[in-house]
Amino acid sequence: MKTFEELESTVRSYSRGWPTVFEKGKGYKIWDTDGKEYIDFFAGAGALNYGHNDDGIQEKMIEYIQGNGILHSLDMGTTSRKTFLETFKETILAPRNLDYKVMFPGPTGTNSVESALKIARKVTGRDTVISFTNAFHGMTIGSLSVTANSFKRHGAGVPLHHSVSMPFDDYVEDQNTIAYLERFLEDRGSGVALPAAIILETVQGEGGINAASMEWLKKVDELCKRWDILLIVDDVQAGCGRTGTFFSFEPAEIDPDIVCLSKSIGGAGLPLALTLIKPEYDQWGPGEHNGTFRGNNLAFIGATEALKFWETDAFSKAIKEKGDVLQKGIEDLVKKYPELDAHHRGRGLMQGIAIGKHQSTDDICAEAFDRGLIVETSGPDDEVIKFLPPLIIDKDGLEQGLAILDESIKTVLGK
Amino acid sequence: MKTFEELESTVRSYSRGWPTVFEKGKGYKIWDTDGKEYIDFFAGAGALNYGHNDDGIQEKMIEYIQGNGILHSLDMGTTSRKTFLETFKETILAPRNLDYKVMFPGPTGTNSVESALKIARKVTGRDTVISFTNAFHGMTIGSLSVTANSFKRHGAGVPLHHSVSMPFDDYVEDQNTIAYLERFLEDRGSGVALPAAIILETVQGEGGINAASMEWLKKVDELCKRWDILLIVDDVQAGCGRTGTFFSFEPAEIDPDIVCLSKSIGGAGLPLALTLIKPEYDQWGPGEHNGTFRGNNLAFIGATEALKFWETDAFSKAIKEKGDVLQKGIEDLVKKYPELDAHHRGRGLMQGIAIGKHQSTDDICAEAFDRGLIVETSGPDDEVIKFLPPLIIDKDGLEQGLAILDESIKTVLGK
Amino acid sequence: MKTFEELESTVRSYSRGWPTVFEKGKGYKIWDTDGKEYIDFFAGAGALNYGHNDDGIQEKMIEYIQGNGILHSLDMGTTSRKTFLETFKETILAPRNLDYKVMFPGPTGTNSVESALKIARKVTGRDTVISFTNAFHGMTIGSLSVTANSFKRHGAGVPLHHSVSMPFDDYVEDQNTIAYLERFLEDRGSGVALPAAIILETVQGEGGINAASMEWLKKVDELCKRWDILLIVDDVQAGCGRTGTFFSFEPAEIDPDIVCLSKSIGGAGLPLALTLIKPEYDQWGPGEHNGTFRGNNLAFIGATEALKFWETDAFSKAIKEKGDVLQKGIEDLVKKYPELDAHHRGRGLMQGIAIGKHQSTDDICAEAFDRGLIVETSGPDDEVIKFLPPLIIDKDGLEQGLAILDESIKTVLGK
Amino acid sequence: MKTFEELESTVRSYSRGWPTVFEKGKGYKIWDTDGKEYIDFFAGAGALNYGHNDDGIQEKMIEYIQGNGILHSLDMGTTSRKTFLETFKETILAPRNLDYKVMFPGPTGTNSVESALKIARKVTGRDTVISFTNAFHGMTIGSLSVTANSFKRHGAGVPLHHSVSMPFDDYVEDQNTIAYLERFLEDRGSGVALPAAIILETVQGEGGINAASMEWLKKVDELCKRWDILLIVDDVQAGCGRTGTFFSFEPAEIDPDIVCLSKSIGGAGLPLALTLIKPEYDQWGPGEHNGTFRGNNLAFIGATEALKFWETDAFSKAIKEKGDVLQKGIEDLVKKYPELDAHHRGRGLMQGIAIGKHQSTDDICAEAFDRGLIVETSGPDDEVIKFLPPLIIDKDGLEQGLAILDESIKTVLGK
């Protein structure tokens, strides 16, 4: 670890909580240089939905490199870009009756969000964007302005503008957050300008695994339609099957104007991002938003191969089943350890256990790491242990992970 | 091309000027699906300094994938990250007596710039950043605020703040731009607050291949030291050997506080970015800036292998020699076609030919494309044809490219 | 009226609704050049609490001018400034156990608000200020940023920053706006930074005569104390006795850190403003906020004389009694004309009648004007008829005014 | 002075440098409570161009008050407002062939500037305004954003936006500031957006009595016309005859789109401000900018009477002659005291003497105060002694003042 401590910036974060050097990964397991095995309930913060080093993706990537395939192309036409576009349309968009134009905004989630905000402002001629409490949309200044966490916002070093934070579903006890939002929008004296867009995550990952109800999502969608506000769903973490459907908003039967995808869209964890835009709002000038790595062709190869998981319903069904196993496991822990003052959060394979204020989630995660489980915290006060196993995990893996967590909690409570 | 026209956003840009589908690349050449060969004077806008599919890099990447190496790791410790850090220190920093902490800010140039601006503001407690006319630093809101191009700025959809544009070297005929900058800084009534940082490119790539003199760079550095302003060199395009030395600022013998690297740092064109920070300014809290793809391990593999080019002086010398060939070729064209009202710009293998207002650089580049040369324009009015061949190009390749350009100009002028 | 139409800017407003040329005023009556008499239920939008041309004030002003008293002095020491300061301390501050330093920020309410925001930001080192829905604090950019009306905000021509709009008391049906505010303040992930200050009017005049309950004001005050947020009461319109006590916040038994006064503080309607600041927050550097007319000595003369009204409790009691008369009058109208879908608002001599959406307040006010009553509308949709008679009005005057309003409503409903 | 020290905010400024209590004023003289007489070379920072308590103005004001004239009217029609508008048109606008609509924006200079910026942004749909180094336009956030002084800007407590500071005439030694401005405007890659307006003072008062040349003003005007930028002249301090003509820009033969007037426009030092707008740009909605004291009728009375000074050329000629006397006096001092390293600045009766860095202007002004001369400093480092005598001063008064200054300098240098 000396190398990281001496040569790397103090900004490094995960290598502090998991102080080892990782070497290999396959499926839902990883190994460090000492050969110690870990179950991965973190999955690259949602970037490894298909697990580590999927055989099919590996094979295609090696074949592509060996064949001298174009690796870097900005937005020039390439065979791998073409194939990905066609496959994405056929496998994902067409079966869901979605008609989006695909933008490659640069290979990160924050870049997708920045592009979404820009086009929403251009199309509407308005500057304000409404985001929600405990939202996380990225760390560049545009995305950070719609991110709620005060530590991260403060890191900007400058005040963040052109955004208004509204309460997410269930944010204030016994208060109807939709009634607030509606009142602010309808009243010309509310002090909140008619926004260009409302941006949301259907399940807030970094914000503490807060899952909006389908009813709440529907109502936000209705408000957007009533006032010609664009609805942006940031599906960077909750998308690509994480909640059981490819897009996390499918069960709400809503119709976002713009969708941000990244993390697992590249299949193997290589950087890639997409911004999906309804054709009527795709009013970009050529090059009006760009970026050097918007054509990461090796990621197109991985992304195309990964879409095979979505050719039938089987994958989706399996995620839901495993989600039920996970939820039961969490609920059992909640009951077993009442002193944790805990409760369950989330849906699909994006779940968490929120712990009462007097307990340390960090201690629990540290015990879990010692026992071979990689799991991290989230929420404004790190009060939630967040479970994001690879979607390809089997029940055995889930149960092993939950068992380690059980022991870790027991140990921490025993101290 | 129908796929791109129908499925992709109108934001796509290069696939309009070079309307074909590329398939393979090796060294300084690429081929499209029809088997047509092109000489690449574009090199992924500077992301492919080592050419397409370098044998050594290919081999290491394949080996890594086959061995189930960790591909995605955020900022967890991995073997590939460790090796890269050590090699970068040994090959690049130590021999140049540079003592930077290395930050991985997310895998794009704009992310590196955003992180540089944040830390400069945090360290100084000031909000303003001075940037220069015709600067390009990226497309996310923080970086865009220090980018000068009005089309790109306007795309933000919101006013851009906390930045002041000052004249770059030689910007106003017969005016001493350093005298202006100095006066604005020294006068408490100038209307420009003492800035957190001054950010600059030593050679402005997108801005029209404007190369600052070494004397000008030295004076900016002195002004920064006099007023405790951090100097940020954005070496995303001009770095990694593009101008003949690894860092473009080496011949100026200056000492930037922060350096942004991306594009070619990954070796093979895979997304990667570094922010180099003097230890005394590395005051980040853990995770105060982050990003899902800040640990792109396949790019670490490529980056480490590419650093072999820098083990001796030979590569640097060769770039300078090829730069001389390129410069002579450009100057010959300037003389041969006086009706172009042209002049030479740039240094190393980052050069351009600026064309008078009555001629179309786009037409010339289109003719060149037809003849098998990939070359693009830059500058606020696209008035410059920009030459960024891979650094590994040989003289033969350079001369072929120049010959195609000669014919293209002749054809356009003949019309 | 031709003079105004031809020579004045289209921004003129009141001369459209009351299309005549006024010449004289005395007490609660004014006369136009045709000799027509009007009862004034407008009182200079609250700047003429002591009525037009009070005998005592007139006498002192004439005496001062005749004696070649200093009229203009910025913040130089003058006899009239000295006497005002001493009288204000003795008559207003000391009896209420208030210990404020007095700042003269320039002679307008908006200037007082701008100075309050500046000092709150300086003292706390924070930039955000929380204001409320339907707040009105002024038209210069700082004050406008905490003003809620969308028409007025839009007039800025630039986005307004550093402010967050929270729901005023009773803003959303059946919702607890204090719970909402508290949640945003306590949660580090709310997206709202800890503010420098909360600014409020206890009764929103322009916003539609919305009177906060004493309980709500107390709770806001408690939240401010809990998080070291400065509480600014903008008492420009509701202060100087308008609600029955000199400061409108007295019945809430709260303790604002900063108080803004203007409008009637000058006694005769001459421009004057004060910013009252708790001594521990009076951290201005000399001249850090200034203004040419911050020493309007004739206004000091009027202001000092007007403070005589406050030497005993009698004036305060009389206002409350007249307020009861006014309230009963309004409630009678509400009952008498159910088709208005009206309800009563406000307290003291700052009351209004809110009319349902299908009726025109403008028509009613126009009828009233024809019948000799000056009364204006307020609220985001001009849905409230606002009653601000001079505090020195007698019951006869109140009843005459109410009678005219009754006839005006009848006429409009009859059409 | 104890009253001011104990009761007033620490923001008070002039009462520190001139620590006495003033009581009376007449013409160019004032007296304190001890009966000590002072010659006034300050004139209310330019608000008392017609001297203290002009007989004619006094008489009209008393008559108006005695006649129960309307004192406060917002923008209702009144006889005094009507008469002022007609007299201003007839005496000032018509003879100069100027066709402005008159706006009353609230009774302070900063309010006039705020309104000018708003309408310029509305009319052009652009947000940036260009202002100049060492400009002073006011202390509310909109005006402060175009004010250059760093102490005053810092007092905002928030970053100031939507403005760009350009170098004033002669700002950088041996550099052509017009060439600089032109280059930034013409280049689409300059980083400075096409502005809504350029705002300037022809002679910068607070900034150090910097007088722009007529040629420079003409060129700025030409640049504005070339790019459809509105030219705003802030004539708050330099207008109303201060430089010898009613408007300070008359000798430059330029044609501003908007003119800001305040300070001496009220005649007697009572708060009043005007914004003059070319009819084609007068696109306000009713009430889009407002303010409680925009109808200060007693100031209309004073303003109307003061316009009598402008019925013939005599007043203008006399100012110029007295300006010559003042200039000669200053130049004599410059020669007599070479150790001051001084030079002359300004024109008309708006002149100054700039002192080298090693001398204290504060000490000189303090000596002058002791000897009965009121004179203040200006400039970013208070390096200029500023002479703003009332325009009605006689040569005797000028010479007495200069003599006191001579002695004061001698005393300070002798220490």
From TrEMBL, chains A, B, C, D:
Pathway: Amine and polyamine biosynthesis; ectoine biosynthesis; L-ectoine from L-aspartate 4-semialdehyde: step 1/3
Keyword check for Transferase: yes
Keyword field: Aminotransferase, Pyridoxal phosphate, Transferase
Annotated EC: 2.6.1.76
UniProt cofactor(s): pyridoxal 5'-phosphate
Top-level taxon in the UniProt lineage: Bacteria
Biological process per Gene Ontology, one example term: ectoine biosynthetic process
CDD domains: OAT_like (cd00610)
InterPro entries named among the record's database cross-references: Aminotrans_3, Aminotrans_3_PPA_site, Dat, Ectoine_EctB, PyrdxlP-dep_Trfase, PyrdxlP-dep_Trfase_major, PyrdxlP-dep_Trfase_small
A Pfam family hit: Aminotran_3
Molecular function via GO: diaminobutyrate-2-oxoglutarate transaminase activity; diaminobutyrate-pyruvate transaminase activity; pyridoxal phosphate binding
Family: Belongs to the class-III pyridoxal-phosphate-dependent aminotransferase family.
Protein name as catalogued: Diaminobutyrate--2-oxoglutarate transaminase
